[in-house]
Write a structure and sequence with these properties.
single chain, 236 residues, mainly alpha
Length: 236
């Protein structure tokens, strides 16, 4: 079966759902990373704190605490990279088992040509998993670069190289966090894409919910309120 014939198996609602998924994925990233200064996202606020961290790092003695934080960040990215690899492996194993795919399609009550349809839908999910893996691996590597730069910062705060090198480390740290966050968003939208296995309607609903959750966490969460306005007084 040619690619044209395969695509013709999908409906216009499938195209709308897939388009919404991809547009929501790209648009949410643009909104989060390029939000106006008057309405900063959580990621932008945390970028400022990462720069402040490197400023404090210059005068902190000893610097073991900072090394532990970087190690913790690398462990988190390594965990998600490993999880993404497992998801990719599982997806390819499922694609290579036509009988199992056929059984799944029967359980989901799909129509003729459903195995091919399911394969294409799984490939979309795999693309999100692969993108997440690449982002997590790059973030892990950048956190490693950051740790090296931090180690190269002179112990003497009065050394003219101290602050510029610390600020360099801060920018690498921010870039690593950006890659990590992009990887997480790929996971979120990859999970949403799995709803396509149930049909175009569930895909659209899952995508809208995912977009709402992602944007709320970046622009409407209590954590963001705390970063902007401080911790509210405890009620007694």
């Amino acid at each position: 079966m040619e690619w044209y014939d395969k695509i013709s198996l999908f409906t216009a609602l499938d195209a709308v759902g897939l388009g919404l998924l991809l547009v929501g994925w790209f648009a949410s990233t643009l909104m989060i990373e390029h939000a106006p200064k008057s309405v900063p996202s959580m990621s932008q606020l945390m970028a400022g704190f990462r720069r402040d961290w490197m400023v404090q790092f210059v005068t902190r003695q000893p610097r073991i605490y900072d090394g532990q934080i970087i190690a913790s960040l690398r462990q988190g990215t390594a965990f998600f990279a490993s999880a993404s690899m497992i998801a990719i492996g599982g997806g390819f194993a499922l694609l290579g088992n036509a009988d199992r795919l056929r059984g799944v399609t029967e359980d989901l009550s799909l129509q003729s040509g459903s195995v091919i349809i399911l394969e294409i839908k799984l490939m979309v999910l795999l693309l999100f998993a692969a993108n997440a893996f690449l982002k997590f691996v790059w973030a892990h590597r950048l956190f490693g670069y950051c740790s090296v730069l931090m180690s190269a910062v002179p112990n003497d705060p009065d050394d003219p190289r101290s602050m510029p090198m610390a600020l360099q480390a801060g920018e690498i740290n921010i870039t690593a966090a950006r890659g990590y966050n992009r990887g997480l968003r790929s996971v979120y939208f990859g999970i949403a894409s799995s709803a396509w296995l149930l049909g175009a309607g569930p895909l659209i609903v899952a995508t809208v919910v995912t977009i709402a959750v992602v944007l709320r966490r970046e622009f409407g969460s209590r954590s963001r309120h705390v970063l902007l306005h401080g911790v509210p007084p405890t009620k007694t």
